[in-house]
Amino acid sequence: MSKSFHVAVAGATGAVGLEMLQCLEQRGFPVRDLSPLASARSAGKSLPFNGGEAKVRELTPESFKGVDIALFSAGSGISKDFAKYAVEAGAVVIDNSSAFRMDGDVPLVVPEINPDDALAHKGIIANPNCTTIVTLMGLNPLHREFGVRHVIASSYQAVSGSGAQGIIELETQVGAITRGEPIEAKVYSRQIAFNVIPQIDVFTDNGYTKEEMKMQFEGAKILHHPGFRASVTCVRVPVYRSHSVAVTAQFEREPDVARAREVINAAPGVQVVDDPANLVYPTPLDTTNRDDCLVGRIRRDVVLENALSFWVVGDQVRKGAALNAVQIAELFID
Question: What share of the chain is helix, strand, coil (3-state, %, to 5)?
Fold first, then answer.
């Protein structure tokens, strides 16, 4: 590939697609040509980019002629239908959906953790699930130092993880409550305003949801750790943006809290924000629109041997999706 790129963004008008355009621009990615792609109803719209405007075109099998990198964020169905056309046209596909994550021929990549996997691609590279990314950003430095065995985690996931309709539902319900009007739940199975819902995605036969099992399956693949296990409860909370995860991790070697802080702070893309005596710890608002994930509440677990508990927060639209995809694309600049 050349040092500048023809980049296509499939799903360019969605929340993650728009964030991808922002990340490309803000990080100075060498875009020679930009092809924003979306559904027929969005074709013709103009999107701001690099001081100008880029017209949205309808996504078709012919959309990828001359494209070097195709960022996909239009859902797994679109990815399954159209990624092959991008690969056939010679593009590297970086897909944000779940379509290819567990395909043995498709690298599943967090650039701060396993960048070399991306370079062994066969045309498609997958972005992990947003909660997996946020969790592993805090866990991976500890894994390298102490050797993780398994984790028990609870996620607190923002409504923007459900797309724009999740945000609208929260706003609408809050407004209705303040006006004393009836509540209507469409996106979620229960009222989300002033409530939490312990279900994200559909339940599987083992009682966990598909979202909850992603942490184990994807974590094992990214960490190259077949024995990795994760027991996770995923909870939707009335927060607009940024996911939080409470993690208890058991390790092969005895962990040290001070050393844990050191190795996390030394890792790229993650920072320790941890001074409970002065009420210093990360919250979703602290990471919104920020690149780095933040880790706090680091402490020795009082139940399990060789275990630490910690709290990690990250913007799931940015690092959990758009930024991670652009960082994967950046691996091909040099």
Answer: 35, 25, 40
- Domain check: are 190 and 59 in the same one? no
CA distance 280 to 180: 36
What single-letter DSSP state applies at residue 280? B
List 6, 23, 121, 130, catalytic entry: 130
> Same domain for 325 and 254?
no
In one-letter notation, the amino acid at residue 215 is M
Q: What one-character DSSP code corresponds to residue 41?
A: G
44/59 same-domain check = yes
Q: Report residue 70: phi and psi, to 5°.
A: -115, 115
Which residues of the chain, if any, have pLDDT below 70?
1-2
Q: Return the ∠ at Cα 267 (arms to 220 and 329), rounded to 5°.
A: 70
Q: Any residues with CB less than 8 A from the CB of 72 and at least 6 apart, and which? A: 10, 11, 78, 79, 82, 83, 86, 93, 94, 95, 96, 97
pLDDT of residue 164: 87
Q: How far apart are CA 70 and CA 128, in angstroms?
A: 16
Residue 85 and residue 39 share a domain: yes
Q: Are residues 144 and 176 in the same domain?
A: yes
pLDDT at 334: 75
Residue 243 annotated to the active site: yes
pLDDT of residue 37: 98
Question: In the chain, which residue ranges form alpha helices assigned H by DSSP?
Answer: 15-26, 76-88, 115-118, 130-146, 164-179, 210-223, 257-266, 284-287, 323-330
CATH number where 141 lies: 3.30.360.10
What's the total number of domains in the chain?
Answer: 2
Verify whether residue 23 is a known catalytic residue.
no
* CATH number of the domain within which 102 lies: 3.40.50.720
Domain match, 155 and 294 both: yes
Containing domain of residue 85, as a range? 5-127+321-330
**Residue 223 and residue 109 share a domain:** no
Mean confidence (pLDDT) of the chain: 97
pTM, rounded to two decimals: 0.96
**Cα 34 to Cα 56: distance, rounded to the nearest angstrom:** 10
What pLDDT, on a 0 to 100 scale, did the predictor assign at position 165? 93
Identified catalytic residue from 6, 121, 143, 243: 243
